[in-house]
Write a structure and sequence with these properties.
It is a single chain. This protein has about 120 residues and is mainly β. The protein has strands at about 5, 10-15, 20-25, 30-40, 45-50, 55-60, 70-75, 80-85, 90-100, 110, 115-119. Helix content is about 0%, strand content about 55%. Strands 2, 4, 5, 6, 9, 10 and 11 form a seven-stranded mixed β-sheet that branches.
Length: about 120
């Protein structure tokens, strides 16, 4: 059974950095395209950034460009989201998700980790 567990969230000041981690179990992370999503209070969940099977990165929100970096460690079966220059509008619950190669959508989701950025 595939499980995704996020960690690394917290409360920080504007301008600080955080690195979120997503531990994948039950299947090699290299078999998935991985994505990071977030949901702010009162808003719909939005895609932030994703990395596909070949390592190609796609940003889904312009605000993450130049500040957020997604990476994958196949040996550790982990995916990371490095977030620099955090802003109050980055406050949200952050989720990682995994998509199988033949799937048309994300198949597995983590439980989320809270990120709160104060000004």
């Amino acid at each position: 059974q595939v499980q995704l567990v996020e960690s690394g969230g917290g409360s920080v000041q504007a301008g600080d950095s955080l690195r979120l981690s997503c531990a994948v179990s039950g299947q090699p992370v290299s078999s998935f395209a991985m994505g990071w999503f977030r949901q702010a209070p009162g808003k719909e969940r939005e895609a932030v950034v994703a990395i596909n099977w070949s390592g190609t990165v796609r940003y889904h929100t312009d605000s993450a460009l130049g500040r957020f970096t997604i990476s994958r460690d196949n040996d550790k079966n982990m995916v990371y989201l490095q977030m620099n220059g955090l802003k109050p509008e980055d406050t949200a619950v952050y989720y990682c998700a995994a998509q199988n190669y033949r799937s048309s959508d994300y198949d597995f989701w983590g439980q989320g980790t809270q990120v709160t950025v104060s000004s």
